[in-house]
Fold this sequence. Notes:
By secondary structure, the protein is of the alpha+beta class. The protein is 53% helix and 7% strand. The radius of gyration is 21 Å and the shape is globular. Keywords: Signal.
Amino acid sequence: xxxxxxxxxxxxxxxxxxxxxxxxxxxxxxxxxxxxxxxxxxxxxxxxxxxxxxxxxxxxxxxxxxxxxxxxxxxxxxxxxxxxxxxxxxxxxxxxxxxxxxxxxxxxxxxxxxxxxxxxxxxxxxxxxxxxxxxxxxxxxxxxxxxxxxxxxxxxxxxxxxxxxxxxxxxxxxxxxxxxxxxxxxxxxxxxxxxxxxxxxxxxxxxxxxxxxxxxxxxxxxxxxxxxxxxxxxxxxxxxxxxxxxxxxxxxxxxxxxxxxxxxxxxxxxxxxxxxxxxxxxxxxxxxxxxxxxxxxxxxxxxxxxxxxxxx
Length: 312
């Protein structure tokens, strides 16, 4: 899916959400970022998504980000775009809170641009970026962010994963599925990925066993959802086999979970949704505060919001 289609799809999704909701605010934040002219973002679809800072090839000034995302996976697109938003907001090498303005660890740059990125740009070499990023780490922020995700995990563990209001494919969607299967259509995979993203299952109409079959399918889907949420939280706490942590995989996984909950049809009536929404709103407000400070000319840390503890 090309970036213009991804942004169009996000606009379509958010059109059905109340403008005051946290999800709508975050979606609009990322739509505006995707359409921004002052912070350049290049894109690529790939199985192994990530986001990398982009620097001017001559001045080595940060000018944007290169975002790689998975096809047909809106929550992942939100995750990677959040990396770009964090980068723009804090200017701290993808750290998702304000770290200050001084870092003595130098960046080393590649000699060529990333495939698919803008001309006359370079990226930082991975080893130097990781070293510099770790030099930004603040233990007080780490404790707060870890505590928030651990609290979220307790809600996710104990929460009642009731079925969302519309757990089944519609009649038209079932008809479409049958047509795609029957024709061997190459669009079948895209269709199935969309249904999976929305957590929809096929409702059985078998006369004697329909009720039992549908119950099993719903239970399997709810089990999958619980595992998906817990996996995202664990990724935020200790992602990428130990290479990731709350310092730069916090806003990302929280926005990813909020998006997925929205696609599943959950809202403020559900405890887990409310918990994720709380965490996402706090992180969103910090990013906004940092951008507002930039507009005022770069006032220093005391004015920029730092992570706060969330009580669930």
